[in-house]
C-alpha cells in the first residue's frame, strides 16, 4: 500500500511524462512535414496535455497542500520534475520525434493496461481513459516508424540514427524503486515492450542496438538532462513573470 | 476576410444577353440560388478566380497557424494550452478542407503549396503581424477571427458547392475561436494592471490590421463586381468592414478598452459607427512582402517543407513497396 508521499511522487511521474512529452510534441505545431502530420501531432499533444491535467490534478489532491495541476506544472523547477529522460529529449528532426514517441508509447500502453484494473479507483479511471488515446498513439507511431525505416535510404539512415541516439533512454522506463513498486512495478512490463518493439523494428528494417546501457535520473529527479530547464523556462514564463495574474 | 484583392477576369460583368447559351444557363442557375458542382460546366474565369480565392484562403489558414503557434509553448495554463492547440489544429483542418475544395477545380495541393512557398500565391495580410504578448492570442481570436467570420458566414451560401460546404464546417469552428479569443481578452482586460496594459496594447496593434483584412474599398472594382455576380463574393469590402466595426466597438467598451481611433463615433443617421480608414500604404507594403513578419512566415513554411521532404518521399516509397508486395502476393 502506497503512502500519500509515494502516491504523490508516482502521480507526478505519470503527469510529468505526459506534460513534458505533450509540450515537446506541441513545439511542432505549424512546422510538420505535411498537413496531416501537423494535425496528428497536435492531436497527440492535446491528448497528453489532457492526461497531464488528470494525473497532476490527482497529485495535487493527494498532496493536500492546495496545489492544483497548473501549480504543479508551472511552479516547480527542474529538480522537482519526475519525468523520464526520454521525453525531455529535444525534437531534433521528425524521425527523432516519432522514434521518441514510438518508444514511449510502447511503454505507456503496457503501463496503462497494467493500471486499468488498479485498486485505486481514480488511477484506474485515468488509466482507462488514457489507454483509449494511447492505443491510437502507439498505432500511429509504430506505423510511422515502419514507413520511415523502410521508406528510402535517407529515411532509413535517419531512423536508425534516431533509434541509436534514443535507445540509452529506454532502460529508465523499466527501472523500479519503492515508489513504483508501491503503485505499479514497471519492471515486469519489459517483456511485452520488447516483443512489441522488436516486431516493429523488424518490419521497419531497423537494427535494435546491442547495448542496453541506460541513462537514469529523470523519474527520481536526481539528474535531468540540460534540455529540461530550457523547456521549463519557455513553458513557465508567464506564470513566473506575473505571479499574481489569473489567465 | 482571408482572401484579399482576388482578381477575376478583369473584363467586367456581361449581361445575360451577351452570353452564349451555356454561360447563360450557368449564370441563370447561380441567379436562382443553385449550386455549381465540380463536374458541371463553368466559365474558365469562374474556375480560375475560385482557385485563387480558395487557395488564398487555404494558405491563410496554414500560415495563420504560425502567429498563434508562437504562443502554444508559452500558454500560461494547461487549459489555455489545450484550447490554443485545438484552435491551431482546427486551422490546419480548415486548410485541409479548403485545399480539397480547390482540388475539385483541377489544381493539386502540391502545386498550390509550391505557389505559396515561392510567393506567387498570397495569404491574408494579417498573418504578417507579430504576436508579442499573451493578450495577442485574445486579440487574434476576438478581432482576426471576428473579421474572418464576417466574410465567411455569407460564403456558406456561395455558388460553388464544395466551397460552400467547407465553409459551413469552418464557420462553426471559427465562432468558437472568436469566443475563446474574447474570453482571453476579458481575463486580461479585467486582470492585473500589467495584463490590462497588454490587452490595450494588443488592441492598439491589431485594430487597423484587422480593418485591412477586408481589403480596400472595392466599390468600383470590376473584379469584385464579377465575383459578386458569380456569388463567390457576397458583400462589398466596405459593407463588411462597417459591420465589423459596428459589432466590435461595443465589445471594446464592454472590455473597458479603447479602440485607437479618435474618429470612432456612433452616427445615428447612418445607424453605424464613423471610423478612420487604416493606412492603405501600409497594407500595400504588406502585400508586397514588407509586412513585419512577411519574411519569417515564408521562411518558416519553406523550412518546414524542405526539412519534411525526406519524410514525404519515404512515406510514398513505403506505400509503393507495400502496393508492389501486395500485387506480387496476388
Helix and strand arrangement:
The complex is a heterodimer of chains A (247) and B (330).
Chain A: H1 4-26, H2 35-63, H3 69-75, H4 85-88, H5 94-115, H6 121-150, H7 153-166, H8 178-183, H9 190-203, H10 226-235, H11 237-241
Chain B: H1 21-31, H2 44-63, H3 65-72, H4 78-103, H5 109-117, H6 135-155, H7 161-189, H8 193-212, H9 222-229, H10 237-255, E1 265-267, E2 272-274, H11 280-290, H12 294-307, H13 309-329
Antiparallel strand pairs in B: 1-2
Helix pairs in contact in B: 2-4, 3-4, 4-7, 6-7, 6-8, 6-10, 7-8
Give a structural overview.
The complex is a heterodimer of chains A (about 250) and B (about 325). Chain A has about 250 residues and is an all-alpha fold. Chain A contains eleven helices and no strands. Chain A has a single domain, classed as Ferritin. Chain B has about 325 residues and is mainly α. Chain B has one domain (about 20-330): Ferritin, core subunit, four-helix bundle (Ferritin). In chain B, helix 2 packs antiparallel against helix 4 (about 80-105), helix 3 packs antiparallel against helix 4 (about 80-105) and helix 6 (about 135-155) packs antiparallel against helix 10 (about 235-255).
